[in-house]
Amino acid sequence: MNGTDYAEFRTDLNHEEFYFDVDDDVKLHGVLFKPDSIASVGTIFHYSGKGMHLMSSIQESYKPLLKKGFQIFCFERRNFGKSNGDATNSLTLKKDALFIFDEIIKLDNVVNKPILIWGQSLGGAFASMNASERQEKIKGLVLEGTFSSFPDIGKVYANALNLENFKWIVPLIMNNDFPTEENIKKLTIPTVILHSKSDKQVPYELGKKIFEKANKNNTRFWDIDSKHIMGIYDYEEKYVGEFIKMIEK
Question: Which residues does the UniProt record annotate as the domain AB hydrolase-1 (predicted)?
Answer without folding.
Answer: 63-155
